Structure formats: C-alpha cells, structure tokens
Amino acid sequence: KAEGHVEGEKVENPDTGLYYDEYLRQVIDVLETDKHFREKLQTADIEEIKSGKLSRELDLVSHHVRTRLDELKRQEVARLRMLIKAKMDSVQDTGIDHQALLKQFEHLNHQNPDTFEPKDLDMLIKAVSARSE
Asked: Is residue 9 part of a domain?
C-alpha cells in the first residue's frame, strides 16, 4: 500500500553510484536551505544547470550556507587525501605526485581546498553530468 508524502518530508534518493555521492547529497542539502538558491534551482532548466549559470548564484547565498559548504569541501578534501594515502601505502611507491592524483577527482577544485566557490559547484555539476551521459 503506497502512502502519500507529507509536504516538506524528505524523499530518500537512490544512491547514484558515484564515489562522491555523499558529498554531492550534502552539498545539495545545504544549498536547498537557502531560499533564494532553492527557488533558482527549482526554476532552472537542465541547460542552465550544466552551463554553469546556476553556479554563479552561489555568490548570493547566505554566509551561513557558504560557511557550511566550505566545511563540507574541507571534509571531502581530507577524505580524498586519506584515499590517496591508502593507495600510496598499498603501492609503497614514494615517487607519487599528489597533485596528479588529486586531478583524478574532478568533482571539486583541488587547488583551493579550503573554500567552496562557484567553480566547485560548476565542477560538481559537470562531473555528475558527464557520468550520467
């Protein structure tokens, strides 16, 4: 028996299969707490999202939202660094270029590990879009 969803109730989305699925979900959840950004997201078409036009709206979100996004990005960078370290430990090769490894992770700007900027949102959207095509 199917039951209707109560308005405002969170609908559980299926796992995307992306190795950064949790990060993606957290970024979306935080962005949706900003009324202005949520309205823009709801009215944007897929081309506006993929083109990066929606990413520019990030400059208009509240300070609290930006602070939370910065924190999420730092956590994701730390997670990726742990993955790289684990990979290095398993290979035992001391000549590994950390920057080259980080470039494999195209869902965030690894050159700026401390703050979540429009470029990060754009890269996250493009990574998801490339994966789904």
From this structure: no
Domain membership of residue 106 (yes or no) is yes
Task: Let me know: does 123 contact 109? Beta carbons within 8 Å.
Answer: yes
Whether the predicted pLDDT of 120 surpasses 70: yes
Which domain, by its residues, includes 55?
16-130
Tell me, yes or no, if the pTM score tops 0.85: no
At 69-78, the pLDDT tens digits run 999 999 999 9
Site of tokens 């290095």: 88
DSSP 114: S
Nearest to 72 by CA among 37, 23, 38, 34: 23
